[in-house]
Description:
- The chain has 285 residues and is α/β, with parallel strands linked by helices.
- It folds into 2 domains: 3-66, no CATH class; 75-262, P-loop containing nucleotide triphosphate hydrolases (Rossmann fold, 3-Layer(aba) Sandwich).
- The chain has helices at 3-26, 61-74, 96-114, 116-121, 137-152, 161-170, 176-189, 205-220, 240-249, 261-284, and strands at 42-46, 52-56, 125-129, 156-160, 192-198, 224-229, 250-254.
- The protein has a 5-stranded parallel sheet with strand order 4-5-6-3-7, with helices on both faces.
- The chain is globular and about 65 Å long.
- Zinc ion (ZN) binds at residues 34, 36-37, 57, 59, 61.
Amino acid sequence: MEPLEQLKDMSNRLSHLNNAEEAKSQTLHLQTDCPDCGGSGWIWSRDDNGIPYCEECHCGIRKKMILQNQLQFAEMPDMYKECRFSNMKSSVYQLPESKEIFIQAAKAVKYWLENIQQMQKQGIGLYIYSNTKGSGKTRLVCSMANEMIEKHQKSVKFTTSLKILDEIKSTWGERGKNAENKLISDLTYADILIIDDFGAESGKDWINEKFYGIINGRYVDKKTTIFTSNYPISRLKYDDRITNRILERSLEIPFPEESVREHIADAMKQELIKKIQGGENGKQA
Ligand SMILES: [Zn+2]
């Protein structure tokens, strides 16, 4: 074997080893009685030259672990964990114009999800806005996040702009500059970043500086960002360097100006009741 090939081979094996170590440390809360891998997700073998290597176990626990890790990493609010894009219906809106705006938005989002590889390659994200609180924007982006994690194994991070600023403030003082840089680099690193309620705060200089750091970092790396906001991009209070970056890489999608928080809660209750009754009927049949 040539040195380069050996090096590649070594690096390959090392990365598997590291993965196996990681996998072991993560099985604590994911018990399995798989007889082949003992719950680690990896199986060791030797190749023709007697060199050990390891393979993913067929039991599928590795995929489950990855999914769980990605859901943990995403940090979505609990109430949106079960939301799926396919469950979002225009019927929760009462006003005809809301239904129409929702249908148009859903079409664009569906297309974006179906072409996610292409969208990511080009760094194209979405900017979903409506002035009305409770119009379903957060629910929409969390539904998208669940779908991207489950169907496309993407690393998705959910945050709000207030949370970003709070975390930055909390690193001032005792934890120092390094902690702040790590947070910013985490936000820059996620394949897909969701920033909910963007533009909720004033355009103070330091805030402009921080957001520019994050958004420009993602722009340069062609990473996809999804925003929700109460304002269209043109009405954001941040400076032009930020809004121009966002404009260039986001499809701006208006969302209905109607609060559906209560309607959605009702619809979910109805669905639950239907499920329970359906289950009972099923047993009787
Ligand atoms: Zn196994």
